[in-house]
Amino acid sequence: MTVEGIEASGKSTLLAGVAQRLRSAGVEPVVTREPGGTAIGERLRAVLLDAPGPLDPMTELFVVCAARAEHARALIGPALHSGGIVLCDRFADATRAYQGGGRGIDDATIVACSALAARGVQPDLTLLVDVPLELSRARVAARAVASGVPRDRMEREDDAFHARVRDRYLAIADAEPERVLVVDGSLDPGAVLARAWPRVAAAAGLS
Questions:
Q1: Which residues are CB-contacts of 110 (< 8 A; sequence separation ≥ 6)?
Q2: Which region holds residue 5: left if phi is over 0, alpha if psi is between -120 and 50, else beta?
Q3: Mind listing the pLDDT tens digit for each residue in 76-103?
Q4: 35 cis-preceded (ω within 30 degrees of 0)
Q5: Are the C-beta atoms of residues 28 and 22 closer than 8 Å to each other?
Q6: Is residue 76 within 8 Å of residue 86, measured between CB atoms?
Q7: From 28, 55, 68, 117, which residue has the greatest number of CB atoms within 10 Å?
Q8: What is the pLDDT of residues 155-196, one digit of tens each?
Q9: How far apart are CA 37 and CA 31, in angstroms?
Q10: 11-21: per-residue pLDDT in tens?
Q11: How far, in Å, CA of 180 to CA of 3, rounded?
Q12: pTM for the predicted model, two decimal places
């Protein structure tokens, strides 16, 4: 199960809420993120988000897929094999949205690279937390001020980049409505969780 969305959409908040509801129902999920999830993956995440200079789009793609290959091998695959439920903050759809929609790499190349890296792992449910670009940008700016942490390399991209990312996410959702549920991230977190939970419960075998 994956949660996707543009910057500051509320996806991480939704993921935390879903994890807590599952625990309350007696299910302990494996909660992870991409890029990341493993020691090597976290180091590759730092390369992607904190690189001191520009990265070629293909370099970005290979960094993301390298992190995914390790993630699938070391964490996600074993968890699923043992019958666990995995909640992942971003996965292959993010690559299609950011490196595809944002950077312009063709979708076939991204899908092929990601499929090799994922080793057959695919989400059975994706929650796409969607917000207008203006709200995303305002939240990113406010978060940077409140935390004192500078915006990362992706957050510093211009509005046109993030608009393309959002458009690609929505195109994926339109093409795969049976897998992707779009949730309005401008609602308060409780309402977002309430909209998503019926599909989560069904996917987890709780309904």
A1: 61, 95, 96, 99, 100
A2: left
A3: 999 999 999 999 999 999 999 999 999 9
A4: yes
A5: yes
A6: yes
A7: 68
A8: 999 999 999 999 999 999 999 999 999 999 999 999 999 999
A9: 9
A10: 999 999 999 99
A11: 9
A12: 0.96
CATH fourth-level superfamily of 2-203: P-loop containing nucleotide triphosphate hydrolases (3.40.50.300)
Q: Which residues pair with 75 in a beta bridge?
A: none
Q: Taken in order 93, 95, 99, 104, is the CA torsion positive or negative?
A: negative
Q: How far apart are CA 20 and CA 202, in angstroms?
A: 16
Contact 172, 123 (CB under 8 A): no
Radius of gyration over every alpha carbon of the chain, rounded to an integer in angstroms: 16
Residue of 78, 87, 69, 90 lying closest to 30 (CA atoms): 87
Q: Any idea which residue has 């959409």 for tokens? A: 9
**Residue 84, number of CB atoms within 10 A of its CB:** 13
Residue with tokens 């699923």: 80
Query: Cα(173)–Cα(129) distance, rounded to whole angstroms?
Result: 11
